[in-house]
Design a protein that fits this description.
With 300 residues, the chain is an alpha/beta fold. It has helices spanning 18-25, 99-104, 135-154, 157-167, 171-178, 186-196, 210-224, 239-250, 260-271; strands at 7-11, 43-52, 70-72, 75-84, 111-117, 227-232, 255-257, 275-277, 297-299. Strands 1, 2, 3, 4, 5, 6 and 7 form a seven-stranded mixed β-sheet that branches. Helix 5 (171-178) packs across helix 6 and helix 6 (186-196) packs across helix 7. The longest helix is centred in the middle third of the chain and has 20 residues, at 135-154. The two termini are 41 Å apart.
């Protein structure tokens, strides 16, 4: 897909700051509140992906008028769709906390942004606490998504195998039919099968046990729904320790640092003409440590 067709989904537990993040990066006005399940129906917004515009290379920024998105001083702004899905809790795949409905809202997303409360002040259900380890949220949320898809497939597995044996369709076509509800193309299934490194014969689904189907789903979720870990509330005093731990476990390349509430505050200051601030302007070469780093803004 090209950029304007991509759909980013904000996922995570209740009260992690998903709706605040959506409001901070898009034109959405999602309801926010300091209590679980403020969001029930998905909120939708349009955010901007910023990249250098070709007009700057030929000194024609004053004449640039793209048909899609906009150009601001040689910086191209490409609109992308962002949705904020209601919070998930452990047991969501069994329907806890309206989990089946909320999980179903994720089916057509291309990329997940897992918004994590890095402050450790909310537990796995989004309830106020202290000293919670947000590293746990990454593991259980991934497992909930995998179990949701696995249960949908494995409940029909005997009939899937029988039909596959009768039709004698290629394995990738049979499996693509089962995951088509997740907006999955056959090349995605082919990539998953390649990563599974199956032993021959490759096209015998009747030889797949529960563990093999679980392995298929595990790799399928990784390929079909690439996930970025958005560590929110980094302005909290306890966030530094939690950020360091998550980066050590999952790697810095999969992590972005967020203070959604601070971003919303900066934008309100701009609207009231108190500061000049350009969203998306970052210090050119920064690493996750030391942190925090602050976006560029200046008082008038």
């Amino acid at each position: 897909k090209n950029m304007q067709q991509l759909v980013f989904a904000c996922v995570g537990k209740p009260s992690a700051g998903k709706s605040t993040f959506l409001n901070s990066v898009s034109d959405a006005q999602a309801k926010v509140g300091n209590f679980p399940f403020t969001t029930i129906e998905p909120n939708h917004g349009v955010a901007w992906y910023r990249c250098p515009c070709a007009c700057a290379q030929v000194s024609m920024t004053d004449k640039c008028n793209p048909r899609y998105g906009k150009c601001v001083n040689g910086v191209r702004h490409v609109p992308v769709k962002v949705i904020d899905v209601a919070g998930l809790i452990p047991g969501a795949h069994r329907g806890l906390g309206l989990g089946n409905k909320f999980l179903d809202d994720l089916r057509h997303a291309d990329i997940f942004l897992h918004v994590i409360d890095a402050s450790g002040t909310t537990n796995e259900k989004g309830e106020n606490t202290t000293g919670y380890d947000p590293c746990k949220d990454v593991a259980w949320l991934t497992e909930e998504i995998e179990l949701w898809i696995f249960n949908n497939i494995y409940a029909r597995w005997p009939s899937i195998v029988r039909k596959h044996n009768v039709t004698r369709n290629p394995m990738d076509e049979t499996l693509q039919t089962q995951v088509s509800g997740y907006s999955t193309r056959i090349n995605t299934v082919q990539q998953v099968l390649e990563l599974m490194e199956l032993a021959p014969p490759y096209d015998v689904l009747s030889g797949w046990d529960e563990a093999t189907v679980r392995k298929f789903v595990h790799i399928f979720v990784q390929v079909r729904f690439p996930t970025v870990l958005g560590l929110n509330k980094i302005d909290h005093k306890d966030a530094s320790r939690n950020v360091a731990k998550i980066c050590s476990v999952y790697g810095e390349d999969s992590v972005v640092l967020i203070s959604a509430l601070s971003e919303c505050f900066l934008q309100k200051m701009v609207q009231t003409n108190h500061i000049h601030y350009i969203p998306g302007m970052f210090v050119p070469s920064f690493s996750l440590r030391p942190f925090p780093f602050f976006p560029r803004f200046s008082l008038f």
